[in-house]
Amino acid sequence: MNKVLIVDASESDRRLMSGLLVKSGYEPIAVETMEAAKDEVAKLPPGAVIVADVSLRDGSAKELINWQKAEGFTFPVIAIVNNLNGPDLLEVMKGGGAVDVVQRAGIDKQLVETVGKYAKPENIIIQLDNALIPRRSNSFREIGKAIGRVATTNANCIIFGESGMGKEQIARQIYLQSSRTQKPLKVLEAGGAPLVGKHDPESDRSEIYNRIEGYFQEVKGGTLIIKNIQLLTFETQSVLLHILEQEHPDVRIISTANGNLLKMVADGSFRDNLFYMLRQTSISVPSLRESTEDIADIADYLLQRYAQKKQRPKQHLDASAIKALKLHPWPGNVRELKDTVLFAAFHTKDDTITAEDIRFDDATPDNAEDLTHRNPRTEKENIIKAFNRAGTWRGAAKLLGVSEKTLIQLRKKHHINPDGEIEA
């Protein structure tokens, strides 16, 4: 497994990053100071990657990069930054500095993908391609229909959904099924280095303006996918809006975003006129905990891919493993499911994976709804959600934090039949 050296003063973020990397098949080494990092750099094998906070207690990521060069080490350094506007970011990126940046607020969304760009591909357990993973749920079928409808138009589209649900794959499918498929496609990360710039004093236009305009020229007639647009800085929002309003580029924009975007529009931190220009139509992707019937299909697909990569017989999940997977809230959604299933496959030598082989990482951010929270207005809905997630009333009672006897009484109160449906 590739080693990743994490250098960060925040203990909680070191723990978070380590958990995400372990589940993706990496071997993280976490330290909090530059001096400790120097000791570890000397031990790193070829193919390793360094993830370093832009500002450390006893130095900086830039100083670590310069030290590494002086000592003859060439490990790529990814800088963790608090925001994309600070002078520290520009300093760490210039003159052969950091190869990339990850915004601290987007660690859970960007870290693994960014590390994957610079680690040796052959040592990564598995990388999913841009195809949609086939599955059986009604919600997935509806998404397929929505892709077809949107693809026949030239409307800009925002794909809403939690992190890890394959929003970029949906965006790519819209492009592939559209009339623009013979024209260029470019994918940008809103919180990444391609959208970082500074003001040019010799020009009326900023560096970021020129850069974004260049992207539009590069994909003229084609499609621009902007991932996680809720991470766009206000300055970048203004630049993007100006180009769309004044220059009317012949480019279709497909964006991805999480639910925070709607809150940002409401509180004014995301420009509403840009939002409506980008959201001429939209697709909403339900979370994995809302479509648990897809878990077995996705896991089976992943195990098939893993078997092909390792040239070994395909492993299977038994009933206990599937039940354990369905009971988990999946804050990281399909991305977390992939990491969990492949980690189990890697460490299980048998053909069958059981519940005992499944390991869930507590370091994953918990953005799942809490079904144990008693609210009379949502009680009925939560009971049905819990049953659909668990597959049994005993499992539903566990998710709801009540006894089976209490759940029976609640079902009677809300006229919910044994199949989890509302009786007339």
UniProtKB/TrEMBL annotation:
Q: Which residues form the Sigma-54 factor interaction domain?
A: 133-346
Q: Which Gene3D superfamilies match?
A: 1.10.8.60, 3.40.50.2300, P-loop containing nucleotide triphosphate hydrolases
Task: Identify the Pfam families for this entry.
Answer: AAA_lid_14, Sigma54_activat
Alphabetized, the UniProt keywords read:
ATP-binding, Nucleotide-binding, Phosphoprotein
Per the UniProt entry, what are the Gene Ontology biological process annotations, in alphabetical order?
phosphorelay signal transduction system; regulation of DNA-templated transcription
Q: Does ATP-binding count among this protein's keywords?
A: yes
Name of protein: Sigma-54-dependent Fis family transcriptional regulator
* GO MF annotation: an example: ATP binding
Q: Which residues carry this modification: 4-aspartylphosphate?
A: D53
Keyword Metal-binding in annotation: no
Q: Where does the record place the Response regulatory domain?
A: 3-119
Which SMART domains does UniProt cross-reference here?
AAA (SM00382)
